[in-house]
Structure to design on (146 residues):
């Protein structure tokens, strides 16, 4: 399924993030993201494409029951790829680096593989931090409902 999804998406601004399957479950989640937010239509189009290929694949036996859904990861999911970050410039992030350092700040810019954050130390003091994408263990957007 991964190869089929990647092949289908290769010439678009949408890309495969992951295919999740919990042990013992017959349900698969195909997670996609894009340079711009992913539309319901893009999810439905990929779902129809994968469904057609699965139906046509004779190596998948009739007794191999499973379901799948195609969706975007969601606002609280960690970002996994550098190409996910540009559409989130201006948003607040919590970033854990591989060395254990944790930073919270607003993503101000991206230059190559370097992320520039403004970290609020106090009401008046802001510290600029630059993080190499390759040193990020986990990066999550801080969702605010203000």
């Amino acid at each position: 399924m991964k190869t089929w999804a990647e092949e289908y998406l290769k010439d678009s601004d949408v890309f495969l993030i992951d295919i999740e399957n919990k042990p013992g479950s017959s349900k698969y989640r195909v997670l996609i993201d894009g340079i711009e937010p992913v539309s319901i239509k893009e999810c439905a189009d990929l779902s129809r494409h994968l469904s057609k290929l699965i139906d046509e694949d004779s190596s998948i036996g009739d007794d191999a029951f499973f379901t799948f859904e195609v969706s975007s990861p969601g606002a609280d999911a960690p970002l996994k790829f550098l190409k996910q970050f540009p559409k989130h410039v201006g948003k607040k992030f919590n970033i854990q680096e591989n060395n254990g350092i944790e930073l919270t700040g607003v993503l101000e810019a991206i230059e190559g593989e370097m992320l520039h954050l403004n970290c609020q130390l106090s009401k008046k003091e802001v510290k600029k931090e630059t993080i190499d994408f390759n040193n990020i263990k986990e990066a999550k957007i801080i969702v605010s409902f203000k």
Summary: The chain has two domains: 2-71, 82-141.
